[in-house]
Amino acid sequence: MSTPQTRRKTRTDAERNRDRVLEAARALFAEFGHDVQMSEVARAADVGIGTLYRKFPTREALIEAIAEHRAAEIVATARRLADTDDPAQGLAGFLHHVGEVLTGDRGMSEVIEKVMGSAEPRGETREALLAVVAELIDRARVRGTVGQDVTAGDVNMVICGLAAVIRNAAGDWRRYIEVALDGLRPR
Amino acid sequence: MSTPQTRRKTRTDAERNRDRVLEAARALFAEFGHDVQMSEVARAADVGIGTLYRKFPTREALIEAIAEHRAAEIVATARRLADTDDPAQGLAGFLHHVGEVLTGDRGMSEVIEKVMGSAEPRGETREALLAVVAELIDRARVRGTVGQDVTAGDVNMVICGLAAVIRNAAGDWRRYIEVALDGLRPR
DNA sequence: CGGAATCCGGATTCCACATTCCGTATTATG
DNA sequence: CATAATACGGAATGTGGAATCCGGATTCCG
């Protein structure tokens, strides 16, 4: 009913513009974080504000699209690390990867904090992330690098803290990870 | 020159109002964090907006006043812990106290993050805090509960993360402290 | 080509707040 | 008390920024 067969192919410029917007938004949010303005995004994408709003009906929608993208990347890497059975990688490698990403993406570090916290309605991707983390923990446990009692929730907290440390430049985040990892090791 | 001897005593009601405002603001910011409105503060204090602004010429000024107050309390407690040479207290006790305070004061946990990060112009109190933390670390080091290489910066990071964990309800913050403390212990 | 169907741009509307202004009310002095 | 000095309240103003609207430009399709 919502698809009258009289449907033309989506205009090519429309599609192109959508990509432009996403790309520009990604760059802007990565550099300046949550407080870039819609008009700035539009300008950077070399697109009218109207267009921007047709693609993403809401500021929030735009941010979500970007975040989802980055999150998916992270999950992908995590899964790779989980599969490769390299002792030098695993949980440690994952945390460092997250740190690396957040360092170059201020907006993401702002989002991660919230996402790792309260069980928000951030569906699929969040689930996927939790799953991989759980797997990483299992492997680490077997290998003896983390205690039996360590949970995915613990790692969540660590990541939440990591994001804050990076976002506020509160110190050397690699050192933070080191400390956290030591803290998770079996007694 | 700025004190023409023709100076009456400050009106008593003025003084009383200032207290009311501070008290109301404290409560409001503690519960709702950074986004309470000036008008709400005024209403809660049962005072006109104009008055509120005579006491604190700026939203920021108000927040700063509140934060400074809380920070001073924390420093005081910290110093007490540092003096009491109770092994069960010290650094651990301090972190738990901070956690307790932040749990009941959302606004503060928002501020702490920033303050612990970038060497902002938050003068005296910040200095004092750093000093006590340093002292707590020294004692802990002597007692052997933290490694030789642990610095005040490390504790800063931990606190910054703690604030984030609490603010986002990302898990059990007592557990977080436990992990952090374990991570700081000597090898 | 021709003319829908779609999409664009960006001025404009709306809204949520901080901050200012000023006429009125209250307090301290003599 | 009288009166100057202060303080008060809260409507009015200013501002920043998201979201809407619509005449004009483009693109698709026969």
UniProtKB/TrEMBL annotation, chains A, B:
Residues 37-56 bind DNA. Residues 15-74 form the HTH tetR-type domain. InterPro entries: Homeodomain-like_sf (IPR009057), HTH-type_TetR-like_transc_reg (IPR050109), HTH_TetR (IPR001647), Tet_transcr_reg_TetR-rel_C_sf (IPR036271), TetR_SbtR-like_C (IPR049445). Keywords: DNA-binding, Transcription, Transcription regulation. GO terms for molecular function: DNA-binding transcription factor activity; transcription cis-regulatory region binding. PROSITE patterns: HTH_TETR_2. SUPFAM superfamilies: Homeodomain-like, Tetracyclin repressor-like, C-terminal domain. It holds the Pfam family TetR_N. It comes from the Bacteria. This is Transcriptional regulator, TetR family. It comes from Nonomuraea pusilla.
